[in-house]
Amino acid sequence: MAPPVSTPKSASPSQPSGKSEVTDLKLQLRQLAGSRAPGADDAKRDLFKRVISCMTVGIDVSPAFSEMVMCSATSDVVLKKMCYLYVGNYARCNPDLALLTINFLQKDCHDQDPTIRGLALRSLCSLRVQNLVEYLVAPLAAGLKDHSSYVRTVAAIGVLKLYHISATMCHDSDFPAALKALMLSDPDAQVVANCLYSLLEIWTQDAANSDEAAREIEALYGKSIIYYLLNRIKDFSEWAQCLVLDLVSKYIPSDNNEIFDMMNLLEDRLQHANGAVVLATIKVFLHLTMSMTDVHQQVYERIKAPLLTLVGAGSPEQSYAVLCHLHLLVMRAPMLFSSDYKHFYCQFSDPSYVKKLKLEMLTAIANESNTYEIVTELCEYAGNVDVPIARESIRAVGKIALQQYDVNAIVDRLLQFLEMEKDYVTAETLVLVKDLLRKYPQWSHDCIAVVGNISSNSIQEPKAKAALIWMLGEYSQDMMDAPYVLESLVENWEEEHSPEVRLHLLTAVMKCFFKRAPETQKALGAALAAGLADNNQDVHDRALFYYRLLQYDVAVAERVVNPPKQAVSVFADTQSSEIKDRIFDEFNSLSVVYQKPSYLFTDKEHRGPFEFSEDLSNLAIGGDSGDDVIHSAQRYEENDKDLLLSTSDKEENGGPTHNGSSTYSAPSDVNSSTSLVSSSTTQPAAFAIDDLLGLGVLDTPALPPLPALSLNAKPVLDPGTFQKKWGQLTVSSSQESTLSIQGVASLTAPQSLIKHMQNNSIQCIASGGQPPNYKFFFFAQKEGSSSFFLVECIVNTASAKAQIKIKADDASASDAFASLFQSALSNFGSS
C-alpha cells in the first residue's frame, strides 16, 4: 500500500520559517501593493501579521521594507498601525530606509481620519534620525493646532522627542512657547498634561545653562499655574493627576490660609481608587504642613484610613508598596499609629516580605498600652514554619523589650524560648538576652540561671555562640562552670572558624581571669598563644594587645578590659538621621520601597538633572563615597511636646570601624621587652591611646596661619582638561559649609551662584539641578602659577548646607583656597 501523500502546511504567523518565509512575504506583498480589489485589505492584514510575527521572534524582515511602504497606502487603521510598528522598528537602525518613509508619513499626517493623523505623527517623531529632523517641524506645528485632541496630545509628546533629537531645532521653532500657550488654553485635560510633562523635562534640562529656562521653571511653580492645574485636577487621568500633584508638592504657599485652601481642594483625592494618586496626595499634604506641627499631626491622623484601606486591597505587591510608605510614617510618628496595631498583624496568606515589614511596624508602635497584645502575637510567630519570619519575630520581641520600661513579662517570654528545642530559636534568643543584660543588668540572675544550662557544643551559629561566650566572661562570678567551659572552647580553638567567636573568646577569658584567676590562668595562656598564632589579623592584634597590656601592668589591664560598666540606655540606629530625612523627602518613589535614597541605587546619569558638556559626560555625579550625601532639610524643630518623631538633630551615629586588608607587621618575639609606653610615645598617632590609658599627651605646637592666596581673575581651562585632572588628582579637602538665609533665597537657579563666584575669580565649568538640590563644578587658578583648584560643590537649599570637595595641583595651597572658597560662598546673597 502506498504511503499517503503529505500536503504542505502553510506557515503560521506564530511559527515563521526563516529566510524562505521572508522571500515569500516580499513576493506576496509586492503583488498586493496598489491593489484595490475586494478583499485586498484582508489579505494585507494576514501578510502584515506574518511580517510582525517574524520581526517579533528576531527574524530580519527589513528586505521587505519597500514592499511594506508600498502597501501602506490604505485607509485601514489596523494596517496603518502594523505598518507604523514595522517602520519604527527598522527606521532607527537603518537611517537610509527611514528616508523612504518620510513621504507617506507626512502624507498620513494630513489624513482625514484623526486617528491616522495621530499615529503617523507619533511614528514620524519616533524615527529619531538626526538628519531627518527638518521633516518633523511642519507636522508638529500643524499637530499642535489640530482640531482633534488626540493629535494635539501626540504632538505635545512629539515636541519632547524632537528636543531629545535636536534641542536647537526645537528652540528655533519656538515649540516650548507653543506648548506653554497650549497648556494654558487647551480644553482637553490630557493635552494639558502632556504639555506640562514636556515643558518640565525641556526646561529642567535647559535650566543649567539658560536663565530664561530657569525663570520658566520658577513660573511653573507659581501660584497662577498651580491653581489652574488644581482646579482642573478632576478632569485629568490618573497618570496626569500624579504629575500635577508632584508639581504641587514643590510649591511653597504664601500663608496658612493658602495651605488650607489647597488641602480642602485635594481632600477628595484621598478617596481615589488608584493608590498612586492617594500617595501623591499624601505627599502634598505632608510637605505643605511640614512647618505646622499641630496640623502635620492631624494630617497623619487623616491619612491613616486611606493607607490602611489600600493595604487590604489589591495584590500583595501593591500592598507592599503602600506598606513601605506606611512604614516610613510609622517610624516618624509611632505614637499616632499605636492604636491601629491590629492592622499590622501577619495574615497566613501574606508573603514573607510583607510579614517582615509588618513585624518592623509592630516593633515601632509598641508602647505601654499595647505591648502585651503585640508580644503575645509575636510569640505565636516564633513557631512559624517559615524560619526567617520566626527569627524576625523573636528579634521583634527583643527590640520591644529594649525600648520598654516594664520588661518583666517580656523577659519571661524570651527565657521560655530557650526551652524550645529549636536551634534557630535558641540562637536568636541568646543574642537578644545578651543585649537585654547590657541594658537591664538587674535581670542577670534570672537569665544566667537559664543560660547556664545551655551547652556551648549545641550552638552552631557564630553570633549566638559569641553571645554565650560574652555572658560566660561577663558573669563568670555567677556561673560556676564558666572557667571550665571557656577552657574547653580554647582547647578547640582550631575548630572554631568564625573570627567573631575567637575575638569574644579572647576577651571573655581575660574577664574571667580577673574574677577567677586560679581557675582561668591556664586557659588564658593557651588563648593568648593561640591568638598570637592566628591567621586572622584582628584576632592576632587583640591577642598581642592583651599580652603587652598584661606585661605592662595587670592592674591597668583590668581597668581596660574589665572596668565598671554602666547600663546601655540607647542602642545605635543602623540608619543615620540624614538618610531617613532624605528618604522622607523622596516620598512616593522607589526610595521608600528600597529604604535608601535614590542616589544609592540609580545610575549616574539618573541621579539628578545635572547637565554637563559632552566632554564632561564621564565626570562622576554623586561620587562613590558617603561624603557626597546631600543632607536633607530639617523640616521642623523638635520639642518635648511634639508627638511626631523628627530624625533631625539627634545624636550622630559613628560609622563602623573596618579592618584594612593591609598586613600588620607585628613583632615576632612576644617576649620582647617593648612596653606600651615606649611603643606609644614614639608615634604621634598613638596620642589618643596614651590619653585613654592616662599616660599623657604631648603638647602639639600651634598651626601657622594660612598663607594669603591670590587667584587669577580670568583663568582658562577647557572641559577636557578639567575632566582629565579630576580623574587624576586626589581629594585634598572635603568640607561642609552653611549658606546664609539671603544666599538660600538668592539661589533660585544655578546661574545666580555662578555669577557670584565669578566675581570672586572662581569659574564654573558645569552645573545643574532643580530645587532643592544643585550641583556645581568650579575651577580657579593660582595667580602667577599654572596650578589649578578644582571644586565639586553640592548645595541643598532646604537644609542650607553645601558639601565641598576640592582637588588641587598644589595640595599645600588647598587649605588656603578652601578658606577663600567658603568665604565667597558664605557671602553669597549678602550684596
UniProtKB/TrEMBL annotation:
GO terms for molecular function: clathrin binding. InterPro entries: AP_beta, AP_complex_bsu_1_2_4, ARM-like, ARM-type_fold, B-adaptin_app_sub_C, Clathrin/coatomer_adapt-like_N, TBP_dom_sf. The keyword Transmembrane does not apply. Pfam families: Adaptin_N (PF01602), B2-adapt-app_C (PF09066). One of its GO terms (biological process) is intracellular protein transport. GO terms for cellular component: clathrin adaptor complex; endomembrane system. It is found in: Endomembrane system. It comes from the Eukaryota. The keyword Membrane applies. Residues 709-826 form the Beta-adaptin appendage C-terminal subdomain domain. Its main location: membrane. Residues 7-20, 656-671 have a biased composition (Polar residues). Keywords: Membrane, Protein transport, Transport. Residues 1-22, 646-677 are annotated as: Disordered. Belongs to the adaptor complexes large subunit family. Adaptor protein complexes are heterotetramers composed of two large adaptins (beta-type subunit and alpha-type or delta-type or epsilon-type or gamma-type subunit), a medium adaptin (mu-type subunit) and a small adaptin (sigma-type subunit). Subunit of clathrin-associated adaptor protein complex that plays a role in protein sorting in the late-Golgi/trans-Golgi network (TGN) and/or endosomes. The AP complexes mediate both the recruitment of clathrin to membranes and the recognition of sorting signals within the cytosolic tails of transmembrane cargo molecules. This is Beta-adaptin-like protein.
